[in-house]
Amino acid sequence: MNPKFLIFFGAVTSLMMLTSTTVASGLSCHQCVGGDFLLRKNLMQNPKALQTMGWVHDWSNTDCLIGNTNVIPNCQTTCVSVWIRKVQGNSNGVMFDCADDLIYHTPDIPGKGNLYLQEAIIFKDDAVYQNVREGFNITYQFSTKTIPVDQKLMAIYFPVENFHHVSEKYMTYPFADQNMSTATVVFYWILIGICLMGLLVLVVVCIKCCVKKPRQRPQSKPILIMSSLAANIDQHRSENQINRQYTEISV
After folding, report:
1. Are 51 and 105 in contact (CB under 8 A)?
2. Which PROSITE patterns match (predicted)?
3. pLDDT at 18
4. Is 61 exposed, middle or buried (0-12, 13-18, 19+ CB in 10 A)?
């Protein structure tokens, strides 16, 4: 048998085995958010705190609390869940997803990520990280196995009387209904203030233009004209009298 054929056959067989092994070992992860996680975008995307991570649009169509989840097949790194609990208060949020291209840098996980490379952190091992930041207790769980969306755990984490009919306080808010950031609120208030000032100036100008001006005193120009006319008439009469006297003398 041709040695080249044997080499080619061996290479193809090895490639097929490697591909099948990779596909067989593909990790599936649940994708969903629950509670008020979507309202914590400013917490999880905060350049001032060196917190940089992706924000998935598909999250807004899910709800972990009622089992409405997506499935991410063939996750190349690990499955991740992020639990956010307000230190003082009843505000809770949770997120499940694949860790691929998700977290770039965070102070909650020291020693991971690079701010200057713009590359996502690769999580390959089972690990749990916890940190308190900006008044919130944040817990990251990375797993090489699928992290189940445990309804019993959800019921404990989101204490509502009827778990399947989540109250408004604990419901998952759609992306469009997220609270505006402080900077956005300040910007809108400044814009409203400028508009009100412009409207006030316009009203004042209109009032000044519409109010009738007071009656002005008559000018003395016509009197001056009449005085000049009378003086000319007197002068003309004087000249006529002089001419008459001169004529009489001549005669």
Report:
1. yes
2. PROKAR_LIPOPROTEIN (PS51257)
3. 43
4. middle
